Amino acid sequence: MKNEKAARFITKLRTQIFTVKFSLATILVLSFVNCINAQVNEDFIVLEVSEFSFTPSTIDTTDGPQTVTVQIRATDAGRGVDRISVTFRSPTGNHSVSALLENQHLISGNSKDGLYRGTAIFPQYSKAGTWSNFSITAGDGRNAVSTDGSKIIVPGTAAQIQVISHNEDITPPQLI
Questions:
Q1: Those residues with Cβ within 8 angstroms of residue 49's Cβ, 6 or more apart along the chain or in another chain
Q2: Over the range 83-119, which residues count as b (16 or more CB within 10 Å of their CB) and which as e?
Q3: Same domain, 96 and 154
Q4: Structural domain that includes position 132
Q5: What's the CA gap between 30 and 23, in Å, rounded?
Q6: Strands (E), 56-167
Q7: Local structure of 123: helix, strand or coil
Q8: What is the pLDDT of residue 4?
Q9: In sequence order, what are the residues at sequence separation of 6 or more whose Cβ sits closer than 8 angstroms to the Cβ of residue 164?
Q10: CA of 26: how far to CAs of 20, 21, 22, 29, 30, in Å?
Q11: Which of 1, 6, 56, 115 suits 131 as a labelling partner, its CA being 20 to 30 A distant?
Q12: 36 & 65 share domain
């Protein structure tokens, strides 16, 4: 008799339509976990930057803006590199100048292992002194990696930029 009731109950379960209620918190947690799993499975290859160099190592911004050429190697066996940003910081750390390198700046190789060259433009009257503490950020459309540029500088090349500026603009603009 017990087995017959159990069999009827199981048969009834198989034919019933169930409504399952989840709390909003449970749905959000499950969505977040699925999102993380999708991102991890999509591109888990580490993006790397190396062989960083720039020229010239001394510029004079007294008479006008100056251009510094940056060159860097980046590899990403997953999606491939789509952008690199190199940022130089002023002696006080209050100012910065950046170079953005994208696919059109690729001079050899490909997006999975390539050498990029671009420019950073220092404005007229840039802060005089030694600019260093540069950072490099590279991205592949999904992930990004940042590093201290001084750690990957090509041996024998400059590790700082000396900026000369005789008429440094130290007066802030005024709002009228």
A1: 72, 73, 74, 84, 136, 138, 145, 147, 152
A2: bbbbbbbbeeeeeebebebeeebbeeeebeebebebe
A3: yes
A4: 48-164
A5: 11
A6: 58-60, 66-75, 83-89, 96-102, 106-110, 113-122, 129-139, 144-148, 161-164
A7: coil
A8: 53
A9: 58, 59, 60, 61, 62, 128
A10: 12, 10, 6, 5, 6
A11: 115
A12: no
Q: Residues 66, 130: one domain?
A: yes
Residues 95, 33 within the same domain: no
Cβ(151)–Cβ(87) under 8 Å?
A: no
Q: CA torsion sign, 84 to 89 to 93 to 96?
A: negative
Pairing of strands 161-164, 144-148: unpaired
CATH code, domain with 62: 2.60.40.2550
- DSSP letter (8 states) at residue 57: S
Q: Is residue 176 part of a domain?
A: no
- What is this structure's pTM? 0.66
User: Is it the case that residue 89 has pLDDT exceeding 50?
Assistant: yes
